Every structure is written in C-alpha cells, then in structure tokens.
Amino acid sequence: MSGAARRAADRPGADRRLRDRGAGLLLAIGFVTMIGGITAGLTGMLTSGLQNRITLDNVRNRQYAADAAVESTIAQVRQLDRSTTGSCSSSGGSTTSSLNGSTIRVDWRTACTVVRGADGVVVSQRNAVFNACVDTGVTCATDAVIIAAQVNFEQGATGTVTKTYVQSWSVSP
Predict the structure, then answer these.
(1) What is the SS3 assignment for 164?
(2) With 60 as the cut, is the pLDDT of residue 33 above it?
(3) Alpha-carbon Rg of the chain, whole angstroms?
(4) What is the 3-state composition of the chain as percent helix, strand, coil, each rounded to the nearest 5?
(5) How far is CA 90 from CA 22, 131, 150, in A?
(6) How far is residue 112's CA from residue 74's CA, in Å, rounded to a whole number?
(7) pTM to 2 decimals?
(8) Between 77 and 169, where is the model more confident?
(9) How close are the terminal C-alpha atoms of the chain, in Å?
(10) How is the chain split into domains, by residue range?
(11) What CA–CA distance (Å, rounded) separates 70 from 66?
(12) Confidence grade of residue 1 (pLDDT, cut at 50, 70, 90)
C-alpha cells in the first residue's frame, strides 16, 4: 500500500470526501441556472404586463372619451327638443369631440312616436339612438361602435321635453 492510500485508510470517511469532491461546484451551477431561469421568466412576464397595461390604458381612455361624447350629445339633443317645441323636426345628426387624445364621432337618429299616458293624455315621445366611434370622417360602422345608447325624450303637452330616460347603454371594447 502506498503512503497516501495508507494515510487515507487510517482516517475514517476519507474515501467519501474524495468522492464528494466537486459536488459543491455542480450544486452552485445548478442553483445559478435555476435562478437565471426564474429571472428570465419573471422579466418576460413583467414586459408582457407592461405592454398589456399600455393597451388597456388606450382602450379605457377611448371608452371614457366616447362616454363623455355620448352624454354631451344627449344633452344637445335634449336642448334641441326644447327649442323645437316638440315638432320632432330633426331626424338625426352627428357631433364630434376630442377628449383623452381621441376624437370621437357620435351619430344619432330619432323616431317620434305618440303614446297615451297613464292619465289618458296623448304625449309625444322621441326615441334617439346614439352610436359613438373613433372619428374617421364617415358614419360609425356597426363593428366600430364603442358605445351605443338608446334614450327616450318624453315631451309634455306644451311640446317641451319633460323627462329623459336612458333605455339602454352598451360599451364595446
């Protein structure tokens, strides 16, 4: 037996230490690889999340701008009804407004009807349908509508609008 082998044989566990030599390096490489993979995955998720946030912000701003444009147009149409004293002379129109970096077009059309109230009095009612979209210079296409609303302007005996009812309001992305 050589001198090194005899010294190793004299110490218990010496063979085991020689066999475990380099295991720490493998563990360190595995740990670094695992941390690198986790970091790469988290970086990808963070980047994707930031891009989605920008898209969602743009959609939200466009929807808020369309909402404000429709509400403004409803107020204008209600005022128009007051000034025309119930003649239902305007059949529709369009308005544009800029808000939140979006130029929104609101197209509206009306349909006048006559109904009998609970007290038996005949009253004129005007339903108006509003469609808001990003302004491209032409009437809002069905697939481009951001907000669609139907509003009822109830007119009293004097012909002025007495009540306004929102019958439906829908938002599309």
Answers:
(1) strand
(2) yes
(3) 36
(4) 45, 30, 25
(5) 88, 17, 16
(6) 16
(7) 0.65
(8) 169
(9) 84
(10) 40-171
(11) 6
(12) low
- Please state, in angstroms and as integers, the Cα–Cα distance from residue 107 to each residue in 11, 87, 101, 134, 135, following that order: 94, 20, 20, 11, 10
What is the signed CA dihedral for 81, 83, 86, 87, rounded to 10 degrees?
-110
Listed in sequence order, the residues at least 6 apart from 95 whose beta carbon sits closer than 8 Å to its beta carbon are 69, 72, 73, 76, 105, 106
134-161: per-residue pLDDT in tens? 999 999 999 999 999 999 887 777 767 7
Residue 171 near residue 147 (C-beta atoms within 8 A): yes
Q: In this predicted model, what pLDDT tens digit does every residue of 56-101 receive, in sequence order?
A: 888 899 999 999 999 999 998 887 755 554 456 667 888 999 988 8
Any idea which residue has 């025309």 for tokens? 84
Q: Report the pLDDT averaged over residues 169-173.
A: 88
Is the Cα torsion angle 139, 106, 99, 134 positive or negative in sign? Answer: negative
